[in-house]
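We modelled the chain as a single entity of 66 amino acids. Its sequence is:
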Amino acid sequence: MFKRSARSTGTAVQATGEKKGFKRAEAAIYLGVTPVTIDRLRKRGLLHPSMALRHPIYSRDASTAS
């Protein structure tokens, strides 16, 4: 379930194949819409990406709830 690298500092990394968040184009594919639709949903306040990083990240849980 958890893997540790050879140079690990003691923190465990979850080794699952599921992504928790998507970039704009990935979110569009996941939802079956175009990237422009993702922009429109964001502008209307129906999708709320995380802006903690340089690129907005859309969580899988928030994408399925909308």
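As a brief sanity check on the tokenised model: The two ends are 30 Å apart (CA to CA). The longest helix spans residues 35-44.
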